[in-house]
Amino acid sequence: MSQPCHSVSVALCTCNGARFVEEQIDSICRQTVAATELVLCDDASTDDTVERARAAWARCRDAGWQVPALRVTVQPRRLGVAANFAAALARCSGELVVLSDQDDRWHPDRLEHAVGFFAAHPQALLLHGNADLVDAAGKPLGLDLFTALDVGAQELEALEQGRAFEPLLDRNLATGATMAVRQELLALALPIPAHWIHDEWLAALAAAMDALAVTRRCLIDYRQHGANQIGARQESWHEAMRRLVSPRGDFLAFRLERARELRCALEALGLRVPARALRLAGEKVAHHAVRAALPANRLLRTLPVWREWRTGRYRRFGRGLRGLAKDLLERG
């Protein structure tokens, strides 16, 4: 087994994951490059997730694998995915931190690939990648994560060429289960704002600093099952239409708060963030401010929506024609 050239932490978050966590622990412990520590934060599980995780780790240790030190924290009350991941990330001490869901299965060389990549790319703060989708039994679904998320050729090209910030302002393309980050990014990114999920926040900050990288390589088996808290299930046509004509509620106000939180964070980073990224973040705030202020009456929305369309900001920050259609058709 190769020795790591970095100290590597694994941030594993669990919540009622007894069904799959042993297989995931096994895949983490049997890497071609060993992690330094495995930081497990359990979000107040009501099953035996933690006991099964400890048992799986002990079996790998007793089998002679170079297992990482296991550090377990059990939350006294349910925090939710983002807050629990933030807690796990804050407890990690490694130079590199690799994120892990409880129900996936790592490819044996995932850590080796991450360590090698960061050694070769000292400016990168975050690496994310593709994944093979598998069913609950671990059988391949014949689909990869980028395809399931409908990552387009232009989006992928932008990510690969260091132009990730603008496409990430439109939608998140970086899945936390495939992420590895430098400790330096965590020092800048934590705590995670209230309106953000951990992976999209880390990706947005790294991209704003031109420090996000992507690999088309599949790094994990990404399990799809009914209990996924966040997954890559493809939306049906009927679901899309139902969502399109559903009440707007507080969604646009929520999106506006997210945009404001991001702009505030980038301003606080100062010279680390290029002027163009600050400008784009400000334009995103302006876009969502217009959308949040649209009247409840559909007919009265037509003119302000058309004006906003002509700025080009729907295309850049609002999912293009899909966002425009939502603003014209959704109930107020």
UniProtKB/TrEMBL annotation:
This is Glycosyltransferase. Pfam families: Glycos_transf_2. Residues 9-124 form the Glycosyltransferase 2-like domain. The keyword Chaperone does not apply. Signal peptide: none annotated. Belongs to the glycosyltransferase 2 family. SUPFAM superfamilies: Nucleotide-diphospho-sugar transferases. GO terms for molecular function: glycosyltransferase activity.
